Every structure is written in structure tokens, then in C-alpha cells.
Design the sequence.
């Protein structure tokens, strides 16, 4: 885009430069034309008025042949200069001045240097065109032959006066050229503005279309990704048909708890809207590793033996390694990284007694700590092959008892602050748990717990 803008500006600058050069050439042509016209007019004035002066002198001489030409000429000095608008000389055959209308410039007795101008044609056959070099500079001159005198009448016009007139005529030309250049520049600027406006409008339109198309493509990819993720998670979840809407509940529990964390300064820098969206999706893959666990262990009613428990615990490693390989093949992303962290560490414990790596405290990723709380809560309030469902109040008691050993105590406190929201989700997606069943389950679990040494908290540890 910048390259196109630069090219457009350079084109306009080049056009402006061409206009400036054209105006300069036009100015020079106008100056030369004015110079030529001024000289032509000067020659014409000399020819016309000099001829009239020569005729007047000839008439005088014809009327009075005995008159001294110099005397007669001096008599005419008051009239002739006004006729020709310059200097008038009476010279002899040797170009010596006999009389002058401007004795300071051309004193009587001075011999002037005459240079013919053959390129200048005159309409008078008795007049010769030329130039004289006088004290005040070069003069244009016409020499008229006198029939009744062997001398000549010379009418001159100073080139300096002609050039002064030309300077007066040329004075408006630079102003006109500058004004023309300014107006042309203004028009080019307006044109450039309109072109750039259209250019940027087009770019903006294309960018908006590209963004819209890209956004639609990204949204399509995200929807496809989410569908694939949920399909994979459902595949793993289908191994245990009694979990019902477990994935929907875990997703909602995790996003609800993450949203609550955003309100606390301690987590404000880490948990944002994007984090909430990621954990809602990533948490669905927390038990993806269960696809590698045999049905006789996964769906066994009652407690597992230590050997079976050891096999069952492998599902965290299987799921984490599976997601790690996907991440290596497709490249790292926030989603895959979070899903891998959750799969690996959602069975780790705050006190370090969890599996598979025995992580402790904040060594456990925050996303895994969140899922650890909500996964146990869901396991407690849902019916499983190895246990009945518990009422919400009992589930909350067990979660609170696990604070500081099984769970992050800060997360438990925030979970407890928002327990009504989790209860609503449990009721909405509760599967087998209904209000009537909750009452019946309370008495059943209490009796079962009384006869077992591990009591109710042991149910949390039994979560698969």
C-alpha cells in the first residue's frame, strides 16, 4: 500500500514539475516575443516618425535653398524629437555630427560609428537601418538621405529605453506564471486527494472484505475445531455411559469458576475473557486418555484394587501425551497447551499427593487446579457405577474439607462464594440427580459412609 501511495505522489510531483518546466519555457518564449515585438514597434515608430521629420526638413530646404541646414535643423529641434520620441542627428557623409537634439549624449563634431542592420527591411527606399554606439549605450537608428543636402538625417531610439519598456511589459509575466503554477498545483493536489481518497476507500473496503472473510473462515475453523474436540471428548466419555452430560457440566463449571476468578485482583492478569473461552473448550478433553483404559477397569462398580488404580491413573499420562503429540505436529497454541496441562494435571493435589507427577501447590497449572475442583464436584453430585450421587450441600462440605490438601484453597473459597451458580448448572444438566433423588441419596451415602473407615472425603479420592 505504501508503495502505491509513493508512486501516486511521485506521479503528481512529476506532473507538477512538467507544468513548471512548461511555464518556464512559456515565460521565456513570451519574453522573447515581447522583446521582438518591442523592437519591431521601435523600428516602425522610427520609420514612421523619422520619415515625417525628414519630409519636414526636405520641405524647409526646398523652400529656402540658401538656408544653412544646421541652423534650420536647430530650429526644428523643438519639434523633431517629439515626432520620433528619441534623438535626432544631422551628419555629413563622414558621419560627423553637424547638429544634435541631445548635445550631451552626442556633441556636435563627434563622429559616430554606424553599423548597418541588413536584416531590418524598411519601407522607405531613402532610409538605411543600423545601430549607433553612443555615450548612453547602443541605439537603433534609421538614416534618411536628404535630396537637397549631402548629409543625412539620423533618427535614433535608445535600446535602454526599449528594454525599459520591455521590462515594464515583462513584469506581470512571473506573477502570472507563479499564479498558474499555484493553481495547477492546487488542482493537482485536489486530484491527488481524490485519487488517494478513492484508493484508500478501496483498500479499506478490500481490507474489510478480507477481514470479514478471514473472520468467517476463522469462525468456521473454530466451530470445526470445537466439533472435533467435543467429538473426541464424547468418544472418551461414551466409555462410561452413566456420566450423562458430564462434558457439558465440566465445561460450564470450569468457565463459571474462571469467570469468578476474573473478579479477584490476584487472578486479573492471568484470567481474561479469552482464558474463560479456552478453558470452556479445553476442559472437555480432561479425560481423553480414558480411551486407553480397559472397560473392566473403567466401568467396574465399587472400589478399584491398587493394581487397577495404578492402571486407571495412566489415563492422565495417555491423554497428556496424546495432546502433546498433536501440539508437536500442528504447532503450539493456547488451546492445545491448556488442554495438555489439564489432561496431565487435573488429578494432581495441592499437597503433592496426586498423580501422575506429584506436582504441588502452584506448580500445578491454574487451569488444571480449576478443573480438579469442578471435576470432583461433578463426580460427587452425579451417579457413577462405583457410587451414588450426593446432594449439593454434602458435595460442598467435601470440597471445603479438601481445601489446602486436595484443592487450591483460594479456588475453593471462590467456588464456595458462587456455589448457587454451580448448583443451578448441576440441576440443569444433572442427568440422574433430581431434587427427590437428592434426599434419598443423602441417607444412603450417610449410612454407607458410617460403615467405611475412609468416610465421605474418601469419595473424592475415588474419583476416576
Sequence:
Amino acid at each position: 500500500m505504501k508503495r502505491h501511495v509513493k508512486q501516486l505522489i511521485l506521479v503528481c510531483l512529476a506532473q507538477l514539475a512538467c507544468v513548471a518546466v512548461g511555464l518556464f519555457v512559456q515565460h521565456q518564449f513570451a519574453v522573447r516575443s515581447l522583446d521582438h515585438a518591442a523592437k519591431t514597434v521601435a523600428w516602425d515608430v522610427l520609420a514612421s516618425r523619422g520619415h515625417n521629420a525628414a519630409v519636414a526638413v526636405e520641405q524647409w530646404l526646398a523652400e529656402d535653398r540658401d538656408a544653412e541646414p544646421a541652423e534650420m535643423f536647430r530650429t526644428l529641434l523643438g519639434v523633431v524629437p517629439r515626432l520620433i520620441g528619441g534623438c535626432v542627428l544631422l551628419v555629413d557623409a563622414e558621419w560627423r555630427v553637424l547638429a544634435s537634439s541631445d548635445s550631451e549624449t552626442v556633441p556636435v563634431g563627434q563622429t559616430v560609428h554606424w553599423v548597418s542592420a541588413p536584416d531590418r527591411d524598411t519601407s522607405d527606399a531613402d532610409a538605411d537601418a543600423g545601430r549607433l554606439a553612443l555615450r548612453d549605450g547602443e541605439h537603433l537608428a534609421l538614416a534618411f538621405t536628404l535630396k537637397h543636402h549631402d548629409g543625412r538625417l539620423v533618427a535614433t531610439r535608445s535600446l535602454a529605453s526599449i528594454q525599459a519598456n520591455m521590462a515594464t511589459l515583462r513584469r506581470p509575466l512571473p506573477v502570472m506564471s507563479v499564479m498558474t503554477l499555484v493553481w495547477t498545483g492546487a488542482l493537482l493536489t485536489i486530484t491527488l486527494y481524490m485519487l488517494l481518497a478513492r484508493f484508500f476507500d478501496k483498500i479499506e473496503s478490500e481490507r474489510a472484505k478480507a477481514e470479514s472473510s478471514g473472520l468467517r473462515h476463522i469462525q468456521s475453523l473454530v466451530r470445526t475445531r470445537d466439533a472435533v474436540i467435543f467429538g473426541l471428548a464424547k468418544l472418551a466419555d461414551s466409555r462410561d455411559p452413566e456420566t450423562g452430560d458430564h462434558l457439558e457440566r465440566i465445561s460450564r463449571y470450569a468457565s463459571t469458576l474462571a469467570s469468578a476468578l476474573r473478579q479477584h485482583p490476584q487472578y486479573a492478569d492471568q484470567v481474561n475473557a479469552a482464558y474463560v473461552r479456552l478453558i470452556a473448550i479445553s476442559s472437555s478433553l480432561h479425560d481423553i486418555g480414558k480411551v486407553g483404559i480397559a472397560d473392566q477397569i473403567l466401568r467396574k462398580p465399587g472400589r478399584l484394587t491398587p493394581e487397577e488404580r495404578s492402571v486407571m491413573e495412566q489415563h492422565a499420562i495417555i491423554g497428556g501425551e496424546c495432546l502433546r503429540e498433536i501440539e508437536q505436529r500442528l504447532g503450539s497454541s493456547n488451546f492445545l497447551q491448556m488442554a495438555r496441562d489439564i489432561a496431565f494435571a487435573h488429578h494432581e493435589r495441592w499437597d503433592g499427593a496426586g498423580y501422575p507427577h506429584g506436582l504441588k501447590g502452584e506448580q500445578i497449572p491454574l487451569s488444571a487446579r480449576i478443573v480438579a475442583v469442578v471435576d470432583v464436584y461433578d463426580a460427587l453430585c452425579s451417579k457413577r457405577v462405583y457410587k451414588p450421587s450426593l446432594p449439593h450441600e454434602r458435595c460442598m462440605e467435601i470440597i471445603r474439607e479438601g481445601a489446602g490438601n486436595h484443592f487450591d484453597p483460594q479456588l475453593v473459597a471462590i467456588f464456595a462464594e458462587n456455589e448457587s451458580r454451580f448448583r443451578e448448572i448441576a440441576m440443569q444438566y444433572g442427568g440422574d440427580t433430581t431434587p427427590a433423588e437428592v434426599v434419598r441419596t443423602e441417607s444412603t451415602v450417610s449410612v454407607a459412609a458410617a460403615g467405611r473407615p475412609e468416610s465421605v472425603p474418601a469419595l473424592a479420592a475415588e474419583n476416576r
The chain has a mean pLDDT of 80. The beta strands are 87-91, 97-100, 114-116, 127-134, 137-145, 152-158. The radius of gyration is 56 Å.
